[in-house]
Amino acid sequence: MNKRGRDIDDEVKRRYLDKLKEYKKKGVRVVIDGDELPENEWHCIFNYNEDTSDKSKMFYMADFIAEPEGGHISEVRFDKICIKDFTLR
């Protein structure tokens, strides 16, 4: 369990990654930090960092990008987000 008392268990991670694989099979791009990484590297989206020197938190946030016409998802983009003085309740 992590410091916040929230643990993402392996089963939840597996199901999330399986869903991303389904999206990819349908032609949806999965982009992490600006790159289309191989599926065996997708687990990095579950990593987070707590930098206690300035109380900042770094984690990945997913954005689901839709096509302008039709609204179908064309890309799932994961970017590192850093929040200073962040307290999760």
What labels would you give this structure?
alpha+beta; 4-stranded mixed beta sheet; 89 residues
How much of the sequence is in beta strands? 25-35%
- Order of SSEs, N→C? HEEEE
> What's the count of strands?
4
Structural class: alpha+beta
Main sheet record: 4 strands, mixed
Gyration radius (Cα, Å) is 15 Å
Order of adjacent strands in the largest pleated sheet: 1-4-3-2
Low-confidence stretches: 1-5
Number of helices: 1
What is the approximate shape? globular
Helix content: 10-25%
Mean pLDDT, as a whole number? 84
What is the first-to-last residue Cα distance? 15 Å
Describe this protein's structure.
The protein is an alpha+beta fold and 89 residues long. Helices cover 18% and strands 34% of the residues. The protein has one helix and four strands. It has one helix at 10-25, and strands at 29-32, 48-51, 56-66, 73-83. A four-stranded mixed sheet has the order 1-4-3-2, with helices on one face. The longest helix has 16 residues, at 10-25. The radius of gyration is 15 Å and the shape is globular. Residues 1-5 have low confidence and may be disordered.
